[in-house]
Design goal:
Layout lengths: L1 E2 L5 E9 L2 E8 L2 E6 L9 E5 L6 E5 L22 E2 L5 H7 L4 E6 L4 H16 L5 E6 L4 H6 L7 E6 L2 E7 L4 H9 L3
């Protein structure tokens, strides 16, 4: 018997169905059937949210560097630019991306935010396919700023599997920003 990342116990592999292994899992939610995130070759799939149409795409991990395209809108899943997030799409990107998501909470009137913007764009291009970088304008989205207790800007938060794992306030130079993000990639 082994445990899954959520702490549930996987009792036994139940079946092989179209190349995907199913398992019976007992967790706090009760028993339920789960499917592994692998393709037919046993390689892991990554869920990637499209920055354009916000659809969730399954991409084999080995193809992340091959500039994959969205199955719905056919746009590139990684265009090397930060994604602008708002109340309607924030939760989808944070909870459904398997890559770490680094969110910059900023405001247009903030001098340090404006000075860090080109560095953040450069980091998005550098980390393309390894992390999703996103921006939230706290002036346009005050409910998100309040929900995440943003007290100063810029504030950077790293989300992994839908959970906040680290935050940092203040502007960073390119080297410091890349070093900080690379701890989670």
């Amino acid at each position: 018997m082994r445990r899954n990342p959520d702490g549930g116990k996987i009792l036994a592999a139940a079946s092989l169905y179209h190349g995907k292994t199913s398992a019976l899992e007992i967790s706090a939610r009760g028993p339920h059937l789960t499917r592994s995130r692998t393709n037919g070759d046993g390689m892991p799939n990554q869920h990637i949210v499209c920055p354009h149409c916000h659809s969730v795409n399954r991409v084999p991990a080995e193809r992340l560097a091959e500039n994959p395209k969205c199955g719905a809108c056919k746009a590139a899943l990684f265009d090397g630019l930060p994604v602008d997030l708002g109340g309607s799409n924030f939760r989808t990107h944070i909870e459904r991306n398997d890559l770490p998501v680094v969110v910059d909470f900023w405001a247009p009137w903030c001098g340090p935010c404006r000075s860090m913007a080109p560095v953040f764009v450069q980091a998005a291009a550098t980390l393309r396919g390894r992390a999703r970088l996103a921006k939230v304008n706290t002036e346009a989205e005050p409910q998100l700023a309040s929900q995440y207790a943003i007290r100063s800007i810029p504030t950077l938060i790293v989300f992994r599997n839908g959970r906040e794992v680290e935050r940092m306030s203040g502007a960073l130079d390119a080297h410091s920003l890349n070093a900080w993000i690379n701890r989670w990639v």
